[in-house]
Amino acid sequence: MAGRPPSRARVLILGGGLSGTLAAAALARHGAGGGTAADIDIDIDIDIDIVERHALPDGPRTRRGLPQARHAHLLWSGGAEAIESLLPGTTQMWSDAGAHRIPIPNGMVCLSPGGWYRRAWPETQYLISAGRDLVDWAVRTRALALPGVRLVPEAEPVRLLGTRSRVTGAVIRHRDGTEEVREADLVIDATGRSSRAPNWLAELGIPAVRETVVDAGVTYASRRYDAPVDTAGWPVINIQADARQAVPGTGGTVLPIEGGEWLVSLSGTRGGQPTSADSEFLEFARHLRSPLIAEFLDRAEPLGPVTVNRNTSNRRRHYEKSRVEGFVALGDSATALNPVYGHGMSVVAQGARALRDLASKSDITSKGFARRAQRAIGRPAAAAWLLAAGQDAAFPHSVAKEPHFADRLTARYVSRLITTACSDFTVVKALTDVMTLQAGGAVLAHPRVLLAAFRGPRLPPLDGPALTPAEQAVLLGRPTPTHTT
């Protein structure tokens, strides 16, 4: 509308990983007036600076500052669809680069605590199987192409600016040691598990946020393999730990990824962790609840050394309780989850989508926006937290608060559902909808699901994995790997 001044806002995003680039995608089309430029009659202008400590590669290659990229990552359908809604065309980029879309449950060979899952059911959900570097590259490429988004590489935040009630920017230090003041209407912390924001906020006199930690002492050990078959159409192989047993929980996952490779991650809770020794990797897999992963790896060739990650505790910072203006935490900076459940990327994506939806109808510079945004971001994180923390708290030697009666009752019910899911499609669908973050936990209390859980398993348990003839053929011989480096 003529004569009306442009609306301008400044956003400073700390961290250029998946959380930071998705935050930029969430806000790039939204300005201080709310809505999108196509939907409202005022000029919209927003400047978004992403401050990233390291130089970022221009392709799907390893980057510094992301050691967890060497381990298996699951992008559930709930997260994939959130990313696609923020950055249309990303799914096609993944596919063109070799990522696989795997149907669930029929595309998984899974031994749950309740037994082997059947694979004759129709698809209910899906996951994207790819290396983390590929996932991040596609998101980063599309996000940095958005208008108003700028990357500030090789610079890191050293402190926040503001008062006891509002964050107004940050001081960043460049590679040459010079420091620069960056003022902003909104600062988003996307620096991950190692976030120093709690200390920075304390320096401003802002009361500390409450933290909840559940730590089962999980260690990850991962290795890439040259797959002995074409990975297109190959299932995810998943041997889950059983928290009901009074021993450390061990498990493993084989993901078919781009380049004709298998990405294999093994894990163990406190007292049963894998090591970084190449010579012990296969032996650890052989002593899981099923030796199936080891049997497949006997037919594959390792492509590099074993890498280990021990930073796996569940940590939730309750920023939604804070009254500070101008500051929002996204991703692991707010809620860090044990990677074994594969929810990290999906929670970030759904949190960013929630941020976008709020920004589409609210002024990001208005009083109370940050708190409303933190609450919106926290909803999908809370659902994943219940799944991860509830499971991890049950393992021996886990560091967690003592479960209440309601917690124990819920755990028994979920255990019943997991066992029933091995032979009941109603329960399979409910569990996969929740696991993929396409539905909340209330789905598990639907009358049909309650009735199925009351009846229990309707078929005898499988005595082994439900493998296709092609999958069995790999175990019967030693095919020559189809991909070489």
Overall mean confidence score, pLDDT? 91
Question: Structural class given helices, strands, pairing?
Answer: alpha+beta
The total domain count is 2
Count, helices? 13
Let me know the largest β-sheet: 8 strands, mixed
Please tally the β strands and state the result.
Answer: 22
Globally, the shape reads globular
Percent strand: 15-25%
**Helix share of residues?**
25-40%
What's the architecture of the largest domain in CATH terms? 3-Layer(bba) Sandwich
The CATH topology name of the largest domain reads: FAD/NAD(P)-binding domain
Radius of gyration: 23 Å
CATH superfamily of the largest domain: FAD/NAD(P)-binding domain
Parts with pLDDT < 50 across at least 5 consecutive residues:
1-6, 31-44, 479-485
CATH class label of the largest domain:
Alpha Beta
N-to-C CA distance? 59 Å
Keywords:
8-stranded mixed sheet, 23% strand, D-Amino Acid Oxidase, Chain A, domain 2, 5-stranded parallel sheet, FAD/NAD(P)-binding domain, disordered C terminus, 2 domains, 13 helices, alpha+beta, disordered N terminus, 485 residues, 30% helix, single chain
